[in-house]
Specification:
single chain, 249 residues, alpha+beta, Glutathione S-transferase Yfyf (Class Pi), Chain A, domain 2, 2 domains, 4-stranded mixed β-sheet, 55% helix, globular
């Protein structure tokens, strides 16, 4: 029975889940969620994921969101001999977990901070933010010194997670990976190892221009809306406070 994946191909974290599912031979039922059209706020999706983020995975009664949590779940449930991708040894697993936190909290955060003004069409990335990207890639380069894969000699979910951020560096901001010999070698290796990598990357790149235009329009509308007096819609009166979440009591 297919596993439902609520996602959008342009969203990089969705692609890491697709790559792992393909490696584990897990059949996915793709349900596209366009966040720029605010489809994540539809009642039927909020009923599944009140955090309204993608990717979100539904496997029977199990619902998981946050991409790295999904990678853990898929590897735990569907991993098999020769394709576990998530070590059972607690020390080796700690290495993988550390890399997952690094991917989200350091590498991709640095990329997002630098690229957001460019994406939104409101300015250029700051040199100090670009330096943070360089520092993060330097860390990766050091970790790969003498290692075939990020956590050692075995392919793990850390590689599936980090490779998408590195692909964004190359594709989105044209970051020169050749300067970082270990990272470049590992990245080329990932392209060969992950069967759907090139296909997914090409599809994402083709759709990204449309998405960028939509993001910039969305940001422009947001800026124009912010210029309006906060009381303009209420006849000069301060609007009532936003009600709490239904389950806050």
């Amino acid at each position: 029975m297919p596993v439902d994946l609520y996602c959008h191909i342009v969203a990089p974290f969705c692609r890491s889940v697709i790559l792992l599912a393909d490696a584990l031979e897990v059949e996915l039922n793709f349900i596209e969620v366009n966040v720029l059209k605010k489809e994540q706020f539809k009642p039927e999706f909020l009923a599944i994921n009140p955090q309204h983020c993608i990717p979100t995975l539904v496997d029977g009664e199990v619902v998981v969101w946050e991409s790295n949590a999904i990678l853990m779940y898929l590897a735990e449930k569907y991993g098999k001999e020769g394709k576990r991708y998530y070590p059972t040894d607690i020390g080796e697993r700690a290495k993988v977990n550390r890399l997952l936190f690094f991917q989200l909290g350091t590498l991709h955060r640095a990329l997002s901070t630098y690229y957001y003004p460019i994406l939104a069409g409101i300015g250029e990335g700051k040199p100090e933010d670009f330096r943070k990207i360089q520092d993060a890639v330097c860390v990766l380069n050091k970790l790969l010194d003498g290692n075939k894969w990020l956590a050692g000699e075995e392919l793990t979910i850390a590689d599936f997670s980090v490779v998408i951020s590195v692909a964004s560096l190359e594709g989105v901001i044209k970051f020169d990976l050749t300067v970082y010999k270990n990272v470049y070698r590992w990245y080329q290796q990932c392209k060969k190892e992950f069967g759907k990598f090139e296909e997914l990357t090409q599809e994402a790149n083709e759709k990204s221009q449309e998405m960028i235009a939509a993001v910039r329009q969305y940001k422009l509308e947001e800026i124009n809306s912010a210029k309006e007096p906060c009381c303009s819609a209420s006849g000069g009166k301060t609007p009532p406070p936003k009600p709490p979440c239904p389950d806050s009591s």
